[in-house]
């Protein structure tokens, strides 16, 4: 029963529907923008060029140089391009990397972002920015980087390779899982998180085939999951993925997919509402195992080893995770993190039995004063 909480709504305009990316010009009108830089990854340049063509003289150009984890030099180049083209805003067409590049430009020049997501990562719903320099990823929160308008067009996710579609959806699910036990959760957040998780899990099987309803459902779920990511403090799961992705340059969504079942197993004994919500969504009393089996059946990676992460690097991750406090419903000692990572590295199923043993975990500890981001 919720009796005491805070909730901060984000000022966000959302347009949702198949084909709605043809209405980017209307969003420019709505925001009073006259000259926008269209951002994309090199792989999505053709899509960005189509968007720029549709905007005519209101497109200042296409900058298709987004890269995962926003390397510092990539952010510098995009900010310079926006300035030299005298852009008054950015249209970020792509996944979390492209939207992250838009955020880096917004952070420097304060330019508003129209986000047109093509994955399920959820970055478009958050005021969280990230940047990587010398192998270290730094993140922060700034209202200036929150996109002003978001256009969700499920048609744009048709081209996602099946494996990326599945792992990206699980990335969204991870936001919902950690929001369900966040120290700053609220009844609104829990409603959105469980509904987002339900939509994602329902969509997952259809994402490997030609299923428009599944794509729309996953995008709706990713909206909700991104919104709860933006509104709460993330915990052990996001901390682990942040270190694994930022330090070892591993693929973001795939890392989330491999790690999530293991973190659910470790945290479930200390996070009953999360475990209950996930059990309802997955139709299983052992949600960590059910999730691990589901993603495996859908062809997603199940081991960090196959993503290029070596067991000899486990100690480095344990050390990095332990080096700064983070919010988590359970106290997870270094040895438990080490064994979680070894299981994940080797592709073993999550250990729902052993981590629930008395003494392995202590009850929730209070949230640290500084937020863990991403
Ligand atoms: N700040 C936040 O709130 C937040 C939230 C989630 C993720 N992120 C960040 O986002 C990044 C990961 O984003 P991501 O997982 O969306 O991947 P991504 O944006 O890096 O995209 C991965 C690859 O898929 C391609 N791609 C994207 N959409 C496609 C489509 N519809 N069809 C075909 N190819 C497509 C891209 O061009 C790229 O090559 C990470 O750096 C992560 O930290 C940030």
List the topology elements.
Blueprint: E1 13-16, H1 24-31, E2 36-39, H2 45-55, E3 59-63, H3 72-84, E4 89-94, H4 96-109, E5 113-117, E6 128-133, E7 136-141, E8 149-152, H5 162-180, H6 187-203, H7 212-231, H8 236-248, H9 252-267, H10 272-282, H11 287-297, H12 314-322, H13 334-346
Parallel strand pairs: 1-8, 2-3, 2-4, 4-5, 5-8
Antiparallel strand pairs: 6-7
Helix pairs in contact: 3-4, 5-6, 5-7, 5-9, 6-7, 6-10, 8-9, 9-11, 9-13, 12-13
Bound molecules: nicotinamide-adenine-dinucleotide.
Outline:
The chain has 374 residues and is an alpha/beta fold. The protein is 47% helix and 11% strand.
Strand order of the largest sheet: 1-8-5-4-2-3
Distance between the first and last residues' Cα: 28 Å
Largest sheet: 6 strands, parallel
Unreliable stretches (pLDDT < 50, length at least 5) are: 355-374
In CATH terms, what is the fold-level topology of the largest domain?
Dehydroquinate synthase-like, alpha domain
Helicity level: 40-55%
Average of the residue pLDDT scores: 93
**Strand percent estimate:** 5-15%
- CATH superfamily of the largest domain, by name, is Dehydroquinate synthase-like - alpha domain
Order of helices and strands: EHEHEHEHEEEEHHHHHHHHH
- Count of the separate structural domains: 2
Bound molecules: nicotinamide-adenine-dinucleotide
- Helix/strand structural class: alpha/beta
The level 1 CATH classification of the largest domain is Mainly Alpha
Tally of alpha and pi helices: 13
Strand tally, please? 8
Structural features, described:
The protein is α/β, with parallel strands linked by helices. 47% of the residues lie in helices and 11% in strands. The protein has a six-stranded parallel sheet with strand order 1-8-5-4-2-3, with helices on both faces. A two-stranded antiparallel sheet has the order 6-7. The longest helix is centred in the middle third of the chain and has 20 residues. The chain binds nicotinamide-adenine-dinucleotide. Nicotinamide-adenine-dinucleotide binds next to α4, β6, α5 and α9.
